[in-house]
Amino acid sequence: MKRYTLKAALSATPVAEDFVAIDVPYPDCPPGGIVVRTIYLSLDPYIGSRLRGRHMGETPPAPMADAIPGAIVGQVVESRAPGIAEGDYVHAMEGGWQEYAALPPGHFRKLDPAAAPLRAHIGVLGMPGLTAWAGITQLAKVTAGDVVLVDAAAGAVGGTAGQIARIKGAAKVVGIAGGPEKCRLVTDTYGFDACIDYKAEGWQAALKEALPEGASVFFENVSAEMAMTALSVSRTYVRGVLCGLADAYQSAGPAPHALNAGAVIGKRAQMLGLVVYDFYPRWDEYVTEASGWIRDGKLAFAEDHADGLDSAPALFGKLMRGANVGKPIITVSEEQV
Predict the structure, then answer these.
(1) The domain containing residue 316 runs over which residues?
(2) Considering the entire predicted model, what is its pTM?
(3) Residue that terminates a domain, selected from 241, 262, 277
């Protein structure tokens, strides 16, 4: 079968040319586990950092051997797992860039294909969606009347966070994104009240104008510097969710941390750190709730889609440049064979 791996160890932001396809044996089914045919493959920003060993202490994949990590939705072709039959669909965080994956016990979740589109499980119902739900409902605890500011609002996490805030009763949701196309996605598809283009001249003044009442919640995905910008347009007792540092994922040195303690104290702010791994035990709970929102038309998602495993390197390179619009997703094979 085909697998994509690194040509060599990385020391810089990954580009398409860093990846190579190799042939490897079809996997054996592990005791208590399954073998799945990969259908959908997720491409996520943090993987660029993980490939260099800079994400949460995780070891990078071995060049010319290990699959590039990535979440998948797949169909079971062989099972030694109780309650899982051939033909069932599953989600796995460690399926990787390959046509088939062997998954040990505890490394997959069975999916109900009738509840929501299968491809949604690596985006709005996958780790990005769970991250957004955890930050908005479990940490910030958004309720009726909140004014919510979301950075990286065109991304899979940010776009879902703003929509969940609205579902939970937020009076206003404002996003920050880069470029007119991404801002149109934020307002026209995700339904935010406004989106500020940080690439436009005078954007910080525009952000202040969009939030005359001040944000009561902000959801930060990009940097400590942007968190301080959000704090500057927030009211006192703001709840700030610190979800990610996307600007630092590909940096050469240590991730910068420039939170201004005086500003935090002055605003009496709660700064809430979010690591989605803490909420994995509640994933099914989130999927049950969010699947209903999708069916009711309350929760939308957008994809930057490509067909075939061979398209993964180019789309991943596009993601690393920040040029994607919507959740990057690869269709590796058909849902039904």
Answers:
(1) 2-123+301-331
(2) 0.93
(3) 277
Domain check: are 92 and 139 in the same one? no
pLDDT in tens, 89-137: 999 999 999 999 999 999 999 999 999 999 999 999 999 999 999 999 9
> Are residue 117 and residue 137 in the same domain, yes or no?
no
Q: Tokens 């525009």 belong to which residue?
A: 206
Total domains in the chain come to: 2
CATH code where residue 59 lies: 3.90.180.10
Burial group, residue 56, by CB count within 10 angstroms (0-12, 13-18, 19+): exposed
Scored b (16 or more CB within 10 A) or e, 153-188 reads bbbbbbbbbbbbbbbbebebbbbbbbbeebbebbbe
Three-state SS sequence of 298-314:
CCCCCEEEEECHHHHHH
pLDDT tens digits, 13-61: 899 999 999 999 999 999 999 999 999 999 999 899 899 887 667 889 9
For residues 154 and 234, membership in a common domain is answered with yes
What's the CA gap between 57 and 146, in Å, rounded?
36
Residue 308: Cβ-neighbour burial (10 angstroms; 0-12, 13-18, 19+): exposed
Of the candidates 106, 37, 23, 40, which has an alpha carbon nearest to the alpha carbon of residue 78?
Answer: 37
Using DSSP, state whether 161 is helix, strand or coil.
helix
Give yes or no for residue 255 having a pLDDT over 60.
no
